[in-house]
Amino acid sequence: MLLRDRYIFVTQNVIGTELTSMTSLANKLNKFDVGWEGNAVSESSLYALSNTGSWGAMIWDSGSKVGHWVLVKGVDDAGNVIIYDPYQGSRYLMTEQEFKEVWNGHSVYKP
After folding, report:
1. What is the pLDDT of residue 1?
2. Residue 100's domain spans which residues?
3. Per-residue pLDDT for 55 more than 90?
4. Phi and psi torsions of 34, nearest 5°
5. Residue 21 or 8, more confident
6. Secondary structure of 30-58 in HEC code, one letter for each residue
7. Between the CA of residue 13 and those of 10, 16, 19, 72, 90, what are the distances in Å?
8. pTM value?
9. Nearest by Cα to 94 from 111, 110, 71
10. Which of 70, 68, 69, 76 is nearest to 93 (CA)?
11. Ordered DSSP codes for the chain
């Protein structure tokens, strides 16, 4: 989805599923579109990242022992974080506070 939002069409089968770290996801994306970075950032980076376009965030659902990547589409006018979750195949909104409670700062983005 990160690539598709930039009009680069690659299937999930080509990208793979073993993308558990920021570095592994950024490296894989860079094979198709250079410039992706994977970094741990502070909560204060939420709006700056959202200004770069769609970006990946590692979130930890309540009670889960592992996190998973979601696509952050941005922040709406009401301050809600717009999420696409490829794992669940769903789209939803989270308040900024709700998002910050499950996001560990691990991010993949293209500045």
Report:
1. 66
2. 4-109
3. yes
4. -70, 155
5. 21
6. HCCCCCCEEEECCHHHHHHHHCCCCEEEE
7. 8, 5, 12, 21, 19
8. 0.86
9. 71
10. 76
11. -TTGGGT----HHHH-S---SHHHHHHHHHTTSTT-EEEE--GGGHHHHHTTSSEEEEE--TT-SS-EEEEEEEE-TTSEEEEEETTTTEEEEEEHHHHHHHEEEEEEE--
- Domain at 52, CATH number: 3.90.70.10
Query: Can you give the length of the chain in residues?
Result: 111
- Total domain count, the chain: 1
Distance CA 19, CA 88 (A): 16
d(CA 90, CA 67): 16
| Angle, alpha carbons 9-46-100 (nearest 5°) | 105
Output the six-digit token pair for 59.
């979130």
Where does the pLDDT of residue 82 fall: very low under 50, low under 70, confident under 90, or very high at 90 and above? very high
Token reading at 49: 């990242």
The mean pLDDT value for 29-58 works out to: 94
The span from the CA of 71 to the CA of 62, in Å, is 18
Beta carbons of 70 and 81 less than 8 angstroms apart: no
